[in-house]
Amino acid sequence: MRPADEQLELLRRGIDAITPEAEFVKKLEHSARTGNPLRVKYGIDPTGIDVHLGHTVPLRKLRQFQDLGHTAVIIIGDYTALVGDPSGRSDHRAGLTKEQVDANARDYLAQVGKIVDLSRAEVRRNGEWFGSWTFLDVLDLTRRMTIGQVSARDDFAQRIRGEKPVYLSECLYPLMQGWDSVEIRADVELGGTEQLFNLLVARDLQQEEGQLPQVAMTMPILVGTDGTQRMGKSLGNYIGVAEPPETQFGKLMSIPDGPMRQYFTLLTDFPLAEVDALLGPGFNPRDAKEVLGKAVVSQYHGTEAAEAAALAFRRRAAGEDPVEIPEAPLGRDQLDADGRIAPPKLLVALKLESSTSNARRVIEQGGVTIGPDRSPVTDPRGPIAVEDGLIVRVGKRKIARVRLA
Length: 405
Known about the structure:
By secondary structure, the protein is an alpha/beta fold. It has three domains: about 5-220, HUPs (Rossmann fold), CATH 3.40.50.620; about 245-315, Tyrosyl-Transfer RNA Synthetase, CATH 1.10.240; about 325-405, RNA-binding S4 domain (Structural Genomics Hypothetical 15.5 Kd Protein In mrcA-pckA Intergenic Region, Chain A), CATH 3.10.290. Helices cover about 45% and strands about 15% of the residues. Strands 1-6-5-2-3-4 form a six-stranded mixed β-sheet, sandwiched between helices. The protein has a five-stranded mixed β-sheet with strand order 7-13-12-9-10, covered by helices on one side. A two-stranded antiparallel ribbon has the order 8-11. Helix 13 packs parallel to helix 15 (about 285-300). It starts with a helix and ends with a strand. Belongs to the class-I aminoacyl-tRNA synthetase family. TyrS type 2 subfamily.
């Protein structure tokens, strides 16, 4: 195991705060001296099935702890997800059913496994302990926190001032998350900056149970592809871990210049001195984004896929089609007697658009071309003669080659 000072230097990268840092240093020193790994906790509530790059920020830090010889403990919050985490929200989060949570959890670990080495991780569901609790056990937990402590939270205080409801079930969430740390005897817990209250609740509970309290390590919130709001699927500004290489690369090339340093710092292992040089005076945003795109895509799809995605992007930027064009089947029974089809129906059949209304809109905006000469399609009502192998393009990123079946 590396000396504590070397570990601390590596682990500080991309960190907003370590609370309290002096205790963390002592834990690292004791671990390095004795060879006993720290137990580093990260909790995930399976409220959805898509892991995006914002989620990977603490997961990458967890992997860094693993690579330094420590134990990663992943908590799948199958019971906390039933409550819904209120942290950082201006409204209450609707709880999910147990069936929804179980279905989401099945996909979560497969995506998390792209970042964390699950063969070396301890994976626990908090239903292991909460599932056997009685109502009296729940009452005992509620005695560990006052209404004053809960209402002092920024998110709750804002909702109370705005006359928005704060449900009693939400007040249980920080206690449940904190109790997870008691059960697995966490030394460190990772989370976003909005999670600090919950992480500190765990310290109090651990001390009441005679354990050494965990250290809270919080990370910045990754901004989305719009460059302003936090990354999130509901905002449409996210980059999914499971998305195809070309989609990931294209989205990374589209981010504003402002968040590039944050992306390099939180999403890659590039030495910060190299990042400074790359983003220094007179830097070329396009070249820097290509370096960023390759670095991120290669983590989830490999170097070859990242290079291919970069090449495809360059070709499209130059007005060329990609080297490999995905084929899409089209049943001959969808064509009229003259082998033609309405443009909106064609785009939906090729899965280039999700609905005929969307297809009509993009056609009227001049975003559709067909064939090797890129003939524009501008009339949603004008039928297209379809031959096997016809190339159909929507914007710069969507393309398909028709295969008549």
